[in-house]
Design goal:
Blueprint (H helix, E strand, L loop, with lengths): L6 H25 L1 H16 L12 H7 L2 H20 L3 H5 L6 H6 L1 H30 L5 H46 L3 E4 L2 E4 L2 H31 L1
Length: about 240
């Protein structure tokens, strides 16, 4: 039995011992799964589902520990919210300047601002699509017990699916409105001194030009009403 005293075998047994301890610890951790699942379900039922806001709270270290592996499931919900917040904060400079576009003359003189705003919207839409694809992929691969899946699916619908649908509508409608504003601005610019501006109004000497302007303006206002309807839905969730 002298080989048992060999340094090599001592290292081998020490490695095996550590491996066995890892398995033992993993086994103990698995025993906590029902408790972790219960804590996660309770969190979703008390903090997420009853909330009237779109915000998804950041987990504390204590909550992460109590949820165990299910903290990764929660990250699916929080990552979508965080990525969209970051996308807007990084692409809103020109859109903030759009607040100053309030008249026909502004649509002529601030066409560059309108174009930049559309580009920023495109960046946000691209980020939204990429983020949603990633989130949907992660969601589809979840393996959850039935009691958790029922609650988590509700939370996913509330914090990801519905907000994403409303955000998609908002981006699409806003892009359409900016496109119409740009079209009106280009049209008025093409008329040169044939159109005069008084305050927020544009005055025409040619009836056909006025009719075409009103047609374009009416179409833009209809889109604005659609956007307001979506905004009301968003407001109910804020």
């Amino acid at each position: 039995m002298a080989w048992l005293h060999s340094r090599t075998w001592k290292r081998v047994f020490f490695t095996l011992f550590l491996t066995g301890m890892v398995w033992q610890l993993a086994g103990c951790d698995n025993n906590k799964e029902p408790e972790q699942r219960k804590a996660f379900i309770q969190f979703l039922q008390t903090r997420i589902l009853p909330s009237k806001t779109l915000s998804v709270p950041t987990l504390t270290e204590q909550e992460k520990e109590s949820f165990g592996k299910y903290a990764d499931d929660y990250a699916i919900l929080s990552d979508y919210s965080n990525e969209m917040t970051a996308a807007f904060s990084g692409n809103d400079q020109a859109m903030r300047q759009m607040r100053g576009v309030s008249s026909a003359k502004d649509m002529v003189e601030k066409r560059e601002t309108i174009e930049k705003s559309r580009k920023e919207l495109g960046n946000i839409e691209s980020k939204r699509a990429d983020t949603m694809k990633s989130v949907e992929d992660r969601y589809s691969k979840l393996k959850q017990p039935d009691d958790l899946k029922t609650v988590f699916d509700q939370a996913y619908q509330k914090t990801v699916v519905r907000p994403n649908a409303l955000l998609t509508q908002t981006l699409s409608l806003t892009d359409a409105i900016l496109g119409q504003a740009l079209d009106i601005g280009n049209y008025l610019n093409s008329l040169g001194n044939k159109v005069q501006y008084t305050g927020a109004m544009a005055q025409f000497t040619d009836q056909k030009q006025l009719d075409l302007f009103n047609e374009k303006l009416t179409a833009m206002r209809e889109k604005q009403q659609e956007l307001l309807a979506v905004a009301r839905q968003l407001a109910e969730m804020q």
